[in-house]
Amino acid sequence: MAKAFFRLQKFLRRTQFLLFFLTAAYLMAGSLLLLQRTRLVIQQGSRGTSTNQALPVPDGMAGVGIVDPRTLQNPHPGPRLLVGMDTLQEPALDQRHSPRWLVSRNSELRQLRRRWFHRFISDQEPMQTAGFKAMKHTAEHKGTYVGCFSDDSRERMLKGAVFYDLRKMTVSHCQEACAERAYTYAGLAYGAECYCGNKLPATASKPEECNSECKGEKGSICGGVNRLSVYRVEELRAGARRWRNVIYRGCFRAPENLTDTFPASLIQPNLTVEMCSEFCSKKEFPLAVIRGRECYCGYPTRRFSLHDGADGLLCSGTHNASSTAKGKYCLVYQTPVQDTRCTDRKFLTTKSKVFVALSSFPGAGNTWARHLIEHATGYYTGSYYFDGALYNKGFKGEKDHWRSRRTICVKTHESGKTEIEMFDSAILLIRNPYKSLMAEFNRKYAGHLGYATDRNWKSKEWPDFVNSYASWWASHVLDWLKYGKRLLVVHYEDLKQSLIPKLKEMVEFLNMTVTEDRLLCVENNRDGNFKRSGAKQKDFEPFTQEMKDLINRYILTVDEALRGRNFTGLPREYVPR
């Protein structure tokens, strides 16, 4: 009996080991199969929608590239489905392209697109260069340390310009940024904030109160809590033009009383642009206005909004009264000084009762819209994601939980019923898909402010990217139109062309009121630090005819959907291409 029991026990032990081995082999095989399937889907460049349904196309839009294989067998008029161009090469099997298969395939591709989009946020973080144009950690612009001074967040002592770098701030970086903009002093606070100005703060503090280590340089001090480490900035190196950042704004009709309109003035024989710009920069004003021998400094205001420019011929010739139509017109220049009337921002003091989304397809200008909204309202915007590069450059809402309701609105690129219905209302930002696709491809390979190389555009990544992302552009808008509870549709092109009216509309939608001068300040600093730098290719056309056929049909689908919901259709410039 004991011998039989021993044999049974030995058999069970072997069976247990065998079952364990088979289970491990099964799991490994399943993982390999899933990885292979994912790779195959990406290589095919499939274009699923972001919801569990395909995109309807109006009957009259037949053409190359966007037809369901079933319609080749049934040419009768009727709604068709926007499916991937690769399906034209696949067998036209009803079972293969059944609605159930599309539901599964579209859901899977949606997850793939999300992973593809989000994995680059962390990879691109070291590549971001917003804020500072020359950020090399060198021995240049060391400057002279002046001392530790107290600072009040409600009334800044150095208020010529403000920069943030919550990851890489150094004393050298701050000094370089202020020197580039012709400021005399550079002040650092909280280890990551840089302030520029031409006047020393009034109240000195004890040296030990400046005790915050610089985020980008161990062992260096960058101010403290409400304390500024102030340096006198050295002149730019020999050969550099100090006034290269002076921008000509145009010829404008002079206000009736210039001395009431502009806080500072100077009368100088043989007045030059450099003289007037230097004078206004030292006074910390963003505008230098020249009329004959007179130089005026100030801000854009309701009296002088810079909206109605005059013919440049009225201001042609030398800067004298006779050549400017007997003093009725003046020349306006933008100095290197930043308009800081609208740079103060904070979190909401009480939780917002309305949960608002700022939704857009990637590359549609969401970051720029956030910049405009934050500076117009004075409140931070949040984000469904965490982009460390944006947080480092001053978007402090990036680290706040997106459902905290402490921000005025929340950035999102998501679509789909569940994601959309979490929000009470939304600003839906739409941009030309051709421009959006290029912008997102640039961000993917060169960060928020760079351009992809010629090698990137010519690689197989670009056609795969277009095939995957083009349908996402369309389905993103269609989903928000279908599931959004309360929408304000804003076209990127309209916002760029008519900034003040459109920004007013957005601010009112957010139940906020702002002054006209604050909106003019936003307009005066409209680009912020979010304009791409580097060499931009001229007359560059990365889209093949096949890509254009695909995108144009998505454009027509979205345009029809917008008009069907009584919204303004897409701008004419979207099609034809």
TrEMBL record:
GO MF, one annotated term: sulfotransferase activity
Lineage summary = Eukaryota, Metazoa, Chordata, Craniata, Vertebrata
The protein's UniProt keywords, in alphabetical order, are:
Repeat
Q: Which InterPro entries match?
A: P-loop_NTPase, Sialate-O-sulfotransferase, Sulfotransferase_dom, WSC_carb-bd
Task: Name the family the entry cites.
Answer: Belongs to the WSCD family.
SMART domains with a match to the protein in the record: WSC (SM00321)
Pfam families referenced in this protein's UniProt entry, alphabetically: Sulfotransfer_1, WSC
Domain WSC intervals: 142-234, 245-342
Keyword DNA repair among record annotations: no
Q: Which organism is it from?
A: Balaeniceps rex (Shoebill)
Please report the name of this protein according to its UniProt entry: WSCD1 protein
